[in-house]
Each structure stands twice: as C-alpha cells, then as structure tokens.
Please model this.
Amino acid sequence: MDVLRCRGLRKEFGGQAVLDSLDLTVAEHQVVALIGASGSGKSTLLRCVNLLEELHDGTIELDGEEISAPGVDPDKVRRRIGMVFQAYNLFPHLSVLDNVTLAPRRVHRRARVEAEAHARELLDRMGLGAKADAFPDRLSGGQQQRVAIVRALANSPRLLLLDEVTSALDPELVGEVLTMIRDLKADGLTMVLATHEMSFARDVADQVCFLDGGRVLEAGPPQQVLGQPTRPRTQQFLSRIIEAGRL
Amino acid sequence: MSTSAHVLSPAQRARVAYRRRQTVLSVLIAAASTAAVGTLLAVAVTGAPGWERVRQTFLDPQIARDALPRVLTGLWLNVRLLVCCAVAALLLGLLIAVLRTLRGPIFFPIRALATSYTYVFRGLPLIIVLYVLTLGAPGLRLQGMPSVLVLGGAALVLTYSGYLAEVFRAGIESVHPSQLAAARSLGLTYRQTMRHVVLPQAVRRVAPPLLNDIVALQKDVGLVALAGPIDAVRAAQIATAQTFNYTPYIVAGVLFVLLAIPLIAVTDRVTLRAARRQSGG
Ligand SMILES: Nc1ncnc2c1ncn2[C@@H]1O[C@H](COP(=O)(O)OP(=O)(O)O)[C@@H](O)[C@H]1O
Ligand SMILES: [Mg+2]
Model:
C-alpha cells in the first residue's frame, strides 16, 4: 500500500519552476532518501507534501486520499504528517516536555496528564528522559534534533518528513540522530528524508531518489543509484560528493 | 564536578587574594569620591546667595506636611488611572498588532483599519485627543455619556495603545518564520500558532520597551487634570496657589519618583534578563 503518492508536482518561485512534473511514490514502511545538489528542490518538495507551500500543479495523495484537493483542511492533514527541520526549530520558550506535548494537547485535545505521560515515555525511549524539564538552549544540537523528532512523533504521524536533519550538527553528534532514525525504520515508520549523508542513505533507505531539474531524474535501490548510476547528471553529482569525501 | 576536593594552586590563591584586594580598594575609592562630590554639591548649593529664599519657597517642612494629604489623594487617582489605562492599552495594543499581521485579502479592511489606527493615534498629540474626548464628547449630550475621568482615561488608552501596538508588532515580526513553519507542521492552526508560539516569544522580547512606555504613561496620566479631575500635580498646584509656596510641587515630585521606582526597577530587571538571554548566557 502506498502512503504517499505525488503526481506531476509543479512549484514555482518568481516564475522559476523549482519542481517540474515531479512524481514520487512511497510505500508503507518504506524509507525514501532524496538526494541532489543544493537548490535542487528537496526542501521545497517536503514542504509541498506538508502543505506548507502552495502547489502550482499536480496532486498529492496521503493513504489514497487527495490532500491537495480544494476544500481539504491543511491543518488536519499536517496532524498526520510529521516534519523535522534542518535547524530543529524547537520552541525556545517551552521546556522539552511542553515542546513535545503542545500538539497533542492543543491539536488532539488530549488531557495534560495523558499527553505528558505519553511524551515522557517517548523521551525515555529515545534516551532523553532526563532532559524533559530542560529548555532547548540547554541542550546540545544532537539532543535538540532528537527532541524535534520526538515532537513530530508525538502526533503519531503516518509519514515522517526529515529535511537534512543532520546538516547543522557537529560531526560527532550526527551519529546519535542517525541511530534514532534507524530505530524508527525498525519500528516500521514510513519516512522521506532529504540528506547529504550518502553512506546513511545507502544504509537505511529502501529507495534513493536523485532530484535534478525539478524532477526525480533517477530512482531505485541505493546500491543501484549510488553504486551504478545510469544518468550522467547523477554520476557527476556523486563524483563531486566523493571528492568532498562524503561517500 | 569534583570541585570540593580540589586544592587551589599557589598561583590561583595569589590571583584570588589580588582580586579581593582590588575589590576592597575600588569600594573605598567609590565611597570617598561620592562623599567628596556630595559635600561639594551641598556646599555649593547651600552657600549660594539665594539659597535661603529657595529653601523657604521650595522646601518648607510645615507646608509640605499640610499639603501631603491632598497630594496623596490626587496621587491615588493617578495610581488607579495608571493601572486601568495600562491594562486596557496593553490589551488594545496587542489586539491591534495581531490584526495588523493577518494575511489574505479577506482581512484587508481589518488590516487597513488597524494600520490607520496606529498612524492616527501615534501622530495626534495626546493633549488634543484628551480635549476632544473630555470637552468635545460631553457636548453631544448623549444619554449615558461616561464621566470626564473615564473619557480622559479613554484618551490615554487610545494614544498609548497606538504606540504599544507598534512595539508588539515589532516583537511579532522578530519571531523567525521557521517557528511558524514548525508550529503549522504540527497541525496547529494560525490562531493556535499565534497564541502558543508567536505571542509568548514576541511579548518576552519586547517586555523592556513595553514597560518603558508604561513608565511614560505613569507621567502622562496626570494630564487628565486638564479636564477637571484632580490628580497629584493639580492638587499640588492648588496648594501652591493658596500658600504662594512651591513646596507642594516638590512633595508631588518626590511621590511620583517613589511611585515610579518599583516599575523602573522591574523594567531594568526585565531588560537585563532579556539581554542575557539574547547573548545566550
Ligand atoms: N520561499 C522561497 N522563495 C523564493 N525562492 C525559493 C524559496 N524557497 C526555495 N526557493 C528556491 O527554490 C530552489 C530550491 O530550494 P530548496 O528546495 O531549498 O533546495 P534544496 O533543499 O534541495 O537545497 C532554490 O533555488 C531556492 O532558491
Ligand atoms: Mg534544503
């Protein structure tokens, strides 16, 4: 069963098409890695899927329901899709616990006690139990990003979107976040992640999509796309990555 | 975390001792220079040829004692008016600031109204708003026209909410768009995002300038006396006219400063804390 189906997506900024007839399908329990040069539209695609950007064409289906249709309430859709950002975007005025319980309490109208119990359980499981009452500025980058992931998980999303979640981290902190994502895959969570960590993509992704010119130029299992890319643009991109020592 | 077991090295002990000596020295120097400046000032003022006259007309203890009850009664009016106007102006200012941030064509009229409001009432001198409301409005002889005091308070609220709205708006705009994206991605509606994510951060950030405006309001509250109600300054003026002595003004002035001290102290504390948070400390 497909959790996400994008057909013919088009998104322009100032008349310039950033996404152009883009197709993407994500099956349940699958992890799809989006790779591509900076500015190739990875973030834009994820923001479009979360209805944070208005489309210029195409359709998006979540669990077979068209969420890009007119009249669909975007707030209701976003409850079912989690998103984690490169810069964590934790709410600095709220404690870790309040960051995590904000949506369950305000959006899902859970009682405070219930929401906090669930949040503490999630934080404990992710090794963040001791940080529940701390404020974000007291946490390391890796801890902040893990809290951001827990915050997205507290909504029990059908689909988790991760936008270069390790790009802002010091190298020694990348591992803890990647480990967490690996655990989520083991739990069967469906995920789409934009990443520059090619070795991680190879390791965790079921499918790798190379974005170029506003569309998915090449897609397939990681060994194929990262190992024997068929398109010259993909080969070029990967050789640049190898030069930079990131594969 | 084994500081308790740590034995200071001779070098560190020497540094600590040196720092302590320096602290004692600077306190002594500060005390001595303060005493010197104070003495000089006192000698200069009291030694001035007109000092006796000034002391009699501005610092007469008996007149101060006599005027105090009336000035205090007036001050009580200032305090009540300040509290009511500050609360009302803060709420109205916040509302107008939020209305100004609404996006989308449906809200254009509301946005335009809110924007004009801040332009008009920041541009209009308070005195004119005060006269129009307290002297002009009762002239309409409408049923249920509120008292001059309430009208005067309304004039203060109108003017100050114009300023406060701009301060709030600056705070709202200082919250990074990524915070909105994060909140919306969690399924929060625009209103919930404002209420739980944007406004708490915005208000915290602009608390110092907001409090500063309240300190200014505290002084402007007395202007309602122009329309009749007797505030502390007006009470002092009346007492002065009766005694031909300016001491009641000094009494009112001292009381105003005493009243302002807690508010200013809170403002300073909040400003300091905000600055510390900004620097990531
Ligand atoms: N809000 C925006 N306004 C204008 N241009 C944008 C905006 N967001 C993204 N873009 C442009 O869209 C292109 C794709 O950006 P992005 O999706 O962030 O790429 P990636 O995440 O792959 O690096 C870039 O050229 C960027 O300049
Ligand atoms: Mg990006």
The longest helix of chain B spans residues 61-101. Residues A 13, 18, 36, 38-44 surround adenosine-5'-diphosphate (ligand 1) (CB under 6 Å). The two ends of chain B are 20 Å apart (CA to CA).
